[in-house]
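We examine the record.

___
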Amino acid sequence: MQLDLSGRTALVTGSTQGIGYSIAQGLARAGARVAINGRTAERAEEAVRQIRQDVPGAEVITAAADVTTEDGTAGLLEALPQVDVLVNNLGIFGAQPAMEITDDDWRRYFEVNVLAGLRLTRAYLPGMVERGWGRIQYIASDSAVVIPAEMIHYGMSKTALLAASRGFAKEAAGTGVTVNSVIAGPTHTGGVEKFVYEMVDSSLPWDQAQRQFMREHRPQSLLQRLIEPEEIANMVVYLASPLASATTGAAVRVDGGYVDSIVP
């Protein structure tokens, strides 16, 4: 398949590391002009340098801003008023006993994991509709469907993304703009490594720790290993391409078979 995004501009939030970085790199390989977003210019510039090194000829720019705030979002929109592909990837997670999740915790998870993406969708969707082409994606999680007992606030925020993407897909119906969510399964990132060692014996070598974590805490996985960020990125790049023009309002799974369902 020719996943050609030449002439398109893409913004990936939270793309200085992990899944977001791999998505940005994948979009750059497909020919898109990619804006790297992080809270600090230093981290965004480092990610830009790395992608330019790994993808010769890539057009990559910095879009440093804290999109969890209205002021930060306004600054980003001033610098980047128009995009063709928006990937709402930014998110936080962490284990916390259910009865110890405070009102402030609930608000923080909603504001970072949900509201930041909704703001950007409201800002960029009208221009996409006017131009008759666009792609908006929300990076959700298996936790949206299989709520983890150790972090139900995170699960709640990812469930909200499924509803938001479906709703905005209806708003964009018939315009040439698609809106989807990607249900990512347990994925190997630096943050997840830290989380894994919070859940299992921290003295174990990584390979053993990963397998113990999957066996004890994610036994539903059919892959029986953590997913690599590039595997998530492959799906995102496809959904961003013209070849995915008939896929909208969907929750597409890249979960390693974690969600025990035969329908998406």
Summary: The first strand starts at residue 9 and ends at 12.
